[in-house]
Amino acid sequence: MRTKRADSSSPMSSPATRHTWLRTPTLSPKSCSGRCSESSRGIWTSSSPCTTTTRDASIRRVSSLARIVRYVTMPEVDGITVTEVDNGVVTEPRSDRERLGQIEHPTTGIITGVRRVPVPTGEPTIESYVVEREDFTPFTDGNSMPHDEGGAAFSEAAARTAAYGEAIERYCGCVYREDAFRTAAFDELTEPALDPTAVVNFSAQQRAAMANGTDLCGTDDELSWVSGIDLQSGTTTQIPAQLVYLSYPPSADPFIRNPISTGLAAGSSRAMAIDNGLAECIERDAFMIHYLTETELPVIDLETAPPRIRRLSDRVTGQGLELTVVDATTDLGVPVAIAVLVDREHRPAVTVAAAAGADAEAVLEDALAEVVQTRLSTVHRLSSTTRSPDEVVDSEIDSFADRALLWSEHDRIADLDFWLESDRTTTFNAFAPDESTGLNLVEAVTEAGYDVYAVDVTTRDIESLAVTVQRVIVPRLQPLYLLERLRYFGGDRLATVPVEMGYRDTPLGENELNTVPHPFP
């Protein structure tokens, strides 16, 4: 990965969002100029993008909900415990759900309500919630975004926490002000920066087929930049803003990638949020590689899994659905599971989800919860549309609604036979990493030769809850795409990973890749 090297004699001359976990610059409220930072007794060591207007509005909103809090570091755990102080009485540390619940209020909250989604008769039981949230358009220079965040899990508390977390991620990942960015071409920057042409998107063959007027980003094109951290070296690195903010208008800068939520994650600590975001990057890289190459993956024998996974599997299949979970782990060595639900009697016929992480049991549970949630969402969509799958034009697919409708038909089941009918099998123990090695996701990816960056997008109001939101970017992993007209066949991982994993003897050519629109939600 080519990056600009630091030039200590040429500091940035215009305001930019600074993020550092080594020192804590402190700005007074009146001195805010696109940078805000607060030491919070030495715990928070990053600054978040905002302007004074956005910051003050955010503080007013949370102040109407929350009492005074102080932050206490817990050396024995990876995270922060929030302890409430009221009239000198210190209460017990609050749960994640209680802390995150502070953002819910019918008139002043980021979330104005949380609604439990009932499970239709005949469907797997799961706890599912959707949030109703405030329109944050006044707080951002980005595009307006739909209000459809939600979360699901096999317990009520976990599902509500997931719903809160999803809303927080989208909120922080969409709120920004343009005057907090540095504007320059990559070639003009003297400090370390991510080369926009090194970010995997289109292949040379795809580029050659594009119209001459296609506005793809070059190193001499002017971009907006935000500061992030190179997670291997710890160096502050400039990152194109269009790769960071979900609401960033695609037409604002020359094209690198279309906005997508991959790598945007919340956590009670920076490390947790980065792990969550990186796991999503790894999960989607694996899915796209194995789907586009139609790689026959090992089916995990869930009878060899821990008791809880077996019970959850029985719950999922108890209504006549067929469940297949395949081991999609790549050369990175991080467990990745892809779950496929097949319904041969009703629609949707096919539902797919995936999960990744260091804890194999948690990965399987997350994949099961995600595939059930996706199915229930699709059931709802199908019940509220009069469209026919025949109306979906493959090349025009640009939404989950289109993909769900396409894959709702039973004729589509055969399109996943390379997983559903796989002759390869594996066990839970073979799927799980060696616990003695203490798998670290950042190390796993960087030691494989891939750069990893993180941008802290936590807003001041969310920071006050002892929650951080990070956007993790791994430029050379295979990216998920949602628009069929913008399929990404670039990079080398589509060719190398199936061979390196022993699934293919020779790499597939680009013209041999799967042409059926993928089913990933």
From TrEMBL:
Residues 1-53 are annotated as: Disordered. It comes from the Archaea. Residues 151-521 form the YcaO domain. PROSITE patterns: YCAO. NCBIfam families: TOMM_cyclo_SagD, YcaO-type kinase domain. Residues 31-42 have a biased composition (Low complexity). This is YcaO domain-containing protein. Residues 8-30, 43-53 have a biased composition (Polar residues). InterPro entries: TOMM_cyclo_SagD, YcaO-like_dom. PANTHER family: RIBOSOMAL PROTEIN S12 METHYLTHIOTRANSFERASE ACCESSORY FACTOR YCAO.
